[in-house]
Amino acid sequence: MGQGLSDIKLKNTEAFLKSYMERLETLAKIEIGRNRQRKYPSGRTVNSPLNSSGSLRDSIESKKQEVSNALMAFGLMGNDYALDINSGTPKSKAPSRAKLVNWIKAKPVQLRDKKGKIIKKTEGSIKAIAKRIQASQKIRGIAPVPFLEEAAKDSMSHLNGIGLEIAYDIADNVEQFLINIGYEEVNGEFKLKEKNNE
């Protein structure tokens, strides 16, 4: 915990951080929804949003969190695979076949074979495609699509005012701040406490 800041009411700082995180949430959702070009090892190129089923975008949410030794913490929450998409995955790491089956069922696009022929969505064809996707990801991993990094970069300019908000909070609680850092009030004045030689 920051020296001197315990017991300080950080209402300005909290409002600023809440607003910043809400903006970051909005920017992340914009990044998920915009068209972006991706090239696959097969040579196929796709120019579409990451948000094929809507699940990823709907899962993104900023929340205040309890973190030990932190005065205040906010986080951006989302589906567990959001970080895998953002950072990519190493070879050998692949989602379970059941997760891939659910993803394929939710995906609102036509499935195609290697020659581009449309495959009818049946339980058997979905399982076969999930098996091929899983095998491919075990061999190649997932290439990174840094949508969270791009959203964070876009939001950085909004952090400029945070020092001012913290200063407002300290000014509103200056007496408590001085006590926290080792001063005491004596006859209406604050003086540094003398250390006891024990």
Describe what you observe in this structure.
It contains eight helices and eight strands. The protein has 198 residues and is of the alpha+beta class. The strands form four sheets. A two-stranded antiparallel ribbon has the order 1-2. Helix 1 crosses helix 6 and helix 1 runs antiparallel to helix 7 (162-172). It is elongated, with a radius of gyration of 25 Å. The mean pLDDT is 77.
Largest sheet: 2 strands, antiparallel
Cα end-to-end separation? 26 Å
Average the pLDDT over all residues and give the rounded result. Answer: 77
Strand order of the largest sheet: 1-2
In total, the number of strands is 8
List keywords for this structure.
single chain, about 200 residues, alpha+beta, two-stranded antiparallel sheet
Lay out the secondary structure.
Elements: H1 11-33, E1 36-39, E2 45-48, H2 55-59, E3 61-65, E4 73-77, H3 82-87, H4 97-106, E5 111-112, E6 118-119, H5 123-140, H6 147-155, H7 162-172, H8 174-180, E7 183-186, E8 189-192
Antiparallel strand pairs: 1-2, 3-4, 5-6, 7-8
Describe the structure in brief.
With 198 residues, the protein is α+β, with helices and mostly antiparallel strands. It has eight helices and eight strands.
